[in-house]
Amino acid sequence: MVSKVLDSRRISKDEALNLFKLELSTLGFIANSVRQKFHKDIVTFVIDRNVNYTNICVAGCKFCAFQRRIGADDAYTLPVDEILEKVKELIENGGTTLLMQGGLNPYLRLDYYLNLLSTIKSKFPSIQIHSFSAPEIVYLSKLEKISIKELIKLLKDAGLDSIPGGGAEILSSEVRPILSPGKCTKEQWREVHVSAHELGMTSTATMMFGHIEKEHHIIEHLEFIRSIQDQTGGFTAFIPWTFKPGNTELDSVGETSSVNYLKVLAISRIYLDNFKNIQSSHVTQTMSVGTIGLYFGANDLGSLMIEENVISSTGFKVKIPKLEAMVNAIKDAGFKPAQRDTYYKIVRTF
After folding, report:
1. Residues 6+ away with beta carbon under 8 Å from 347
2. Which domain holds residue 62?
3. Of 255, 280, 283, 276, nearest to 266 (Cα)?
4. What is the mean pLDDT of the chain?
5. Tell me: the pLDDT tens digits for 217-243?
6. Which residue in 5, 21, 10, 35 sits closest to 263, CA to CA?
7. pLDDT by residue (tens digit) across 28-43?
8. What pLDDT sits at residue 308?
């Protein structure tokens, strides 16, 4: 199995499950060898802003501390003018990417989204709008009674450039109904991303693990997105991160270890042979573990987020580095830092 990976041959689901039995150092060696074939010593990051335009959500996910029910005292929907001010600040800070995600809000209809996108693009044409996860798109398509592909085309025509992989959690029919019963199914998640790719858009794939899933569910998730990538080639990157307990219905399961995070990160790099980019999460793992992840298959260190609200809502203190700190962290880890855009194109080297 190890020789197959080092010879750039594809491994099966059963072989991937056996990777969990290997020593962490062995996994790191294999995953790092794969990373080097794709990227040598370049490590990228992006400057973006995560704008959560509403926290009102009817999904009821057990892992989420950010959601608010309709009528809650601290429920909100951001006015367009406030979002525009946030985009202005993003550009002033050298940002290229606007990530907008929110809850499944029944009060927000298509005209809100189309107006928001077109207004942002008219005022800030250079910004790359990487927004609206699959659950948001599926929910809106149901509200408007139009197909998923038709909705994505309307959003694209209004200014949407690419779609984030959020809302994937674990793409398993055994886990999903327990974890997030009010969100789209894994088949609907697939339909969103395949539709976007067919319309000429790119997207990312994600996985949130370290809660109720088992090892075979993780491999099921990886196989699911690998098969989509075989079909469309439209994913730019895979981004795994861990569940953070705090103010959620799943707090009793605790938090998975950084060792398990690195193990899953490495297995992801090994199994996803058709994904060029794998991201290490300094947001959920701290920068110390995030940079170690660069030796476990990752070639991207995520974002200099100007704003983060979702993980912070659990009570976990998110430490977002400044540009100099990100560059130095990558250099100190032994790599060459480079700023990228939404499409993983390098816009600046250091």
Report:
1. 96, 339, 340, 341
2. 2-349
3. 280
4. 93
5. 999 999 999 999 999 999 999 999 999
6. 21
7. 999 999 999 999 899 9
8. 55
Contacts of 2 (CB under 8 A, 6+ apart): 26, 30
279, two tokens: 């991201």
Query: What integer pLDDT is reported at residue 148 of this predicted model?
Result: 98
- Structure-block tokens of residue 21: 């039995």
Beta carbons of 108 and 142 less than 8 angstroms apart: no
- C-alpha span between 86 and 50 (Å, rounded): 10
Number of structural domains (the chain) is 1
Give CA–CA dist 71/85, Å, rounded: 26
Q: Please report the beta strands in 77-169, taking only residues with DSSP state E, as ranges in sequence order.
A: 97-100, 128-129, 162-163
User: Which residue reads 């501390």 in tokens?
Assistant: 65
Task: Pick the closest to residue 35 from 292, 299, 237 (CA basis).
Answer: 299
CA distances from 197 to 149, 261, 318, 341 (A): 10, 29, 32, 18
Q: Alpha-carbon distance 17 to 318, whole Å?
A: 32
Among 133, 156, 121, CA closest to 52? 133
How many residues appear in the chain? 350
Residue 197's contacts (CB-CB under 8 Å, 6 or more residues apart) are 203, 232, 233, 234
| pLDDT of residue 306 exceeding 90 | no
Q: What is the pLDDT of residues 67-81, one digit of tens each?
A: 898 989 999 999 999
Q: CATH number of the domain that 123 lies in? A: 3.20.20.70
Query: How far apart (Å, rounded) are the C-alpha atoms in residues 239 and 19?
Result: 19
- Output the six-digit token pair for 158: 């209004």
Q: Which residues, 6 or more positions from 126, have their beta carbon under 8 angstroms from its beta carbon?
A: 91, 96
- DSSP-assigned states of every residue in 163-176: E--TT-S---TTTH
CB-count burial class (<10 Å; 0-12, 13-18, 19+) for 198: middle
- The rounded distance, in Å, linking the Cα atoms of 129 and 155 is 11
Please tell me the distance from the alpha carbon of residue 349 to that of residue 236, in angstroms, as a whole number.
20
How sure is the predictor about 315, in pLDDT bands with cuts at 50, 70 and 90? low
SS3 category, 88: helix
pLDDT at 254 over 90: no
